[in-house]
Backbone:
């Protein structure tokens, strides 16, 4: 355990809340060594903030500028956890027909912010009732003026006709995006591709369209097709390895004035079949209530109990907690049998 300057660390969280994730933005935390708990933020290969100006990150700034992916790196005998940060994952569903309804459900279960666009009031109302976070009932051209794309925006085009599909795909390709997918047959895709070429879009952009949308799993019903689309979104999202590592509700809770101390728990390494990946975060309050999750089950319960005990003991720093899921898997017949290292930080 090591105590660090709380005000300096809070400045890092404020910087993360205000960061522009359209630039390559990394959060770095020392998780093992004399400087455990020290934090820094890098944007466009420059260090923009660090928790202590005169120690670890300042001394090793040049080495860390060259780190371009998430994971744990060893620098001067200390382990540093690097997170490539992204925005909240946002899916824009163009069209509110029968296929869009189960897709709304699944994307919300995945923790994505869901926007649905349709120019028909009755269909837009269906999307609202289904639980979409935002519904825009306007012409597709007008609706796209309200949508700001970024590197974590996923466009799924499932409108009622060729012309609308083409217009939505064209608008989506012109915005920053992680993914543009379109439903339809090979003939439909060929029509859209030719129309987009006539509009002057480059072959590179047109070739980036995922069509027919969804992984090839033989899906037939609207629900099955929605699963196939969601699976493709997951595949593309995880290939990019951009963590939405600091969810808004966690940042909001950390930034609240006059609150009680809490423990921020972050999975920094995992092996085997642990349920959640590196960068997953959970905030534990003194009463044991939580914001977020590190996977549920025995592991999460143990992390919560340890966090509460740390708070009761006046913990004021950072430490690494190891949890071996394999022992519980053997004993209780659980499916998950890996292990995780969780960084526990007082915030």
Residues:
């Amino acid at each position: 355990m090591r105590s660090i300057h709380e005000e300096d660390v809070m400045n890092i969280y404020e910087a993360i809340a205000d960061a522009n994730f359209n630039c390559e933005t990394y959060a770095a935390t020392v998780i093992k060594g004399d400087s455990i708990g020290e934090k820094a933020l890098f944007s466009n290969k420059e260090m923009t903030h660090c928790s202590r100006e005169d120690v670890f990150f300042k001394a090793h700034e040049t080495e860390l500028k060259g780190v371009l992916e998430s994971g744990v790196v060893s620098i001067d005998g200390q382990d540093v956890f690097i997170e490539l940060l992204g925005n909240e994952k946002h899916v824009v569903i163009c069209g509110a027909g029968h296929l869009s309804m189960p897709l709304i459900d699944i994307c919300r279960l995945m923790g994505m912010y869901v926007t649905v666009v349709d120019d028909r009031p009755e269909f837009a109302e269906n999307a609202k009732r289904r639980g979409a976070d935002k519904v825009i009932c306007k012409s597709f051209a007008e609706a796209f003026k309200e949508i700001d794309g970024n590197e974590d925006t996923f466009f799924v085009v499932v409108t009622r006709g060729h012309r609308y599909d083409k217009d939505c795909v064209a608008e989506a390709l012109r915005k920053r995006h992680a993914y543009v997918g379109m439903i339809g047959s090979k003939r439909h895709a060929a029509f859209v591709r030719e129309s987009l070429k006539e509009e002057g879009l480059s072959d590179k952009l047109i070739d980036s369209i995922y069509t027919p949308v969804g992984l090839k799993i033989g899906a037939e019903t609207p629900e099955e097709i929605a699963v196939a689309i969601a699976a493709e979104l997951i595949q593309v999202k995880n290939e990019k390895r951009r963590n939405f590592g600091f969810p808004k509700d966690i940042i909001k809770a950390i930034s609240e004035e006059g609150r009680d101390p809490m423990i921020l728990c972050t999975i920094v390494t995992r092996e085997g079949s642990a349920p959640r990946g590196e960068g997953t975060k959970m905030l534990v309050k003194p009463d044991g209530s939580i914001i977020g999750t590190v996977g549920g089950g025995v592991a999460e319960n143990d992390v919560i109990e340890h966090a509460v005990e740390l708070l009761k003991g006046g913990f004021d720093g950072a430490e690494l907690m190891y949890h071996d899921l394999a022992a519980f898997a053997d004993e209780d017949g659980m499916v998950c049998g890996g292990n995780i290292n969780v960084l526990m930080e007082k915030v």
Q: What stands out?
A: The chain has three domains: 1-86+242-246, 90-240, 253-347.
